[in-house]
Automatic annotation (TrEMBL):
This is Nucleoside 2-deoxyribosyltransferase. It comes from Candidatus Kerfeldbacteria bacterium CG_4_10_14_0_8_um_filter_42_10.
Length: 203
């Protein structure tokens, strides 16, 4: 799932570590982050795809599944992004630092906030939980994220190491990539596990 992450330009240098942490947490939850850099270039998409979108006159927003905004500081672009989110019914997360007032942001949404838009305060230590709640709007379970962000130590024999080296020779894959793909294939073919996942969703 792709999300467009809007970061206000006000105090961007000061807030850069906060924005980077938000992006990192979004990626850890299984989302691909697209954002606009200070020079108006787009980060998170291939140059060829960006060129095609720009040539067609379309907005990058048409090619994302959701929107995440840091709305602590008011910005005219927030209204535009909210309008797009409402019209396209895209899962949207409006983040604001705990203790801040965001009357203008809430005012743009009117009295009733749609179910697919979450307006949530955050602190650094609570950010992961906040994003996990947002991810559920996509029907995703953050505990079953496919993003490889859990470090796991595996001791192997020389024989297995030799096989892995032989297997990835002349490919761009690493041993870890090969093993991840192999396990993913096992997961897909495991009927009992797939039935368990279906039952879990029902509960």
């Amino acid at each position: 799932m792709r999300v467009y992450f809007f970061r206000p330009e006000i105090n961007q240098e000061k807030n850069r570590p906060v924005y980077q942490n938000i992006a990192k947490k979004l990626e850890a939850a299984g989302l691909m982050v697209i954002t606009k850099e200070e020079d108006d270039s787009i980060f998170g998409m291939e140059e060829r795809e960006i060129a095609r979108i720009q040539a067609s006159g379309e907005s990058v927003l048409n090619y994302v599944d959701g929107i995440v905004m840091e709305t602590t500081a008011d910005n005219p672009e927030i209204g535009y992004l909210l309008a797009h989110a409402v019209l396209q019914k895209k899962p949207t997360l409006c983040l604001y630092q705990k203790g801040s007032l965001i009357k203008k942001t809430l005012g743009r949404l009117g009295q009733k906030i749609p179910d697919f838009i979450k307006v949530m305060p955050y602190q650094e230590e609570e950010l992961e939980k906040t994003i996990a709640e947002y991810v559920q709007l996509f029907g995703m379970d953050p505990e079953l994220s496919e993003v490889p962000n859990i470090k796991f130590t595996l001791r192997i024999s020389k024989k297995i190491s030799h096989f892995l080296h032989w297997k990835i020779n002349n490919t761009k894959k690493t041993k870890a990539d090969f093993l991840r793909e192999l396990i993913e294939e096992i997961i897909k073919k495991d009927e009992k596990y797939q039935k368990y996942l279906i039952q879990r969703k029902k509960n």
